[in-house]
Design brief:
The structure is a single chain. By secondary structure, the chain is mainly alpha-helical. The protein is 62% helix and 0% strand. Helix 2 (10-40) packs across helix 3 and helix 3 (43-55) crosses helix 4. The longest helix is centred in the first third of the chain and has 31 residues, at 10-40. The N and C termini lie far apart (69 Å).
Length: 117
């Protein structure tokens, strides 16, 4: 990418190189923060929390990793039908309530006629 920036000009190339340097430095400091977490928690807990994030497709979010450890969500059992904080997600198959109620065998015709009034 920096080579491509030289096609624009040398100042552009230096500017982009500085962007990459800052990103590298930021990643370095975040990595040091992650490596300090086992001192507060444990290696096992940090690994469990990191695994939980990776299985959810959340990558590179240090704040979320800390949140999982602070809230002790790494102890929660992993379920595919639950959000990260353990809240269950229920996908509802029927969204048309009127059609669902007319197809329900447990609703008597008397109730159905009073609903339509």
């Amino acid at each position: 990418m920096i080579r491509q920036a030289y096609t624009v000009g040398p100042a552009t190339a230096l500017f982009i190189a500085d962007l990459w340097d800052r990103a590298t430095l930021h990643a370095y400091w975040d990595s040091l923060d992650v490596l300090q977490l086992p001192a507060l928690y444990s290696c096992c807990r940090v690994e469990r929390a990191a695994h939980r994030l990776l299985t959810r497709g959340i990558r590179g979010r240090l704040g979320v990793l800390r949140w999982i450890l602070e809230e002790e969500l790494d102890f929660a059992s992993h379920r595919d039908d639950a959000q990260l904080n353990g809240q269950l997600v229920f996908p509802f198959a029927r969204t048309d309530v009127r059609r669902a109620s007319t197809e329900d065998p447990f609703i008597s015709p008397e109730i159905e006629t009073t609903r339509n009034r």
